[in-house]
Amino acid sequence: MKEQNYIKLEFPSRSSNEFFARAAASAFAAQLDPTLEELGDIKTAVSEAVTNAIVHAYPDKIGRVLMRMRILSGNTLEIMVKDFGKGIENVEEARRPLFTTGGSERSGMGFTIMESFMDKLRVRSVPGKGTTVVMQRAIRLRAGMR
Amino acid sequence: MKYAASFSSGRLTVYLSGELDHHAAGEAIRVVGELIEDNMPRECVLDFSGLSFMDSSGIAVIINAGRKMRSLGGRLSVENPAPQPRKVLEASGIERLIAVATRI
Question: Model pTM?
Answer without folding.
Answer: 0.94
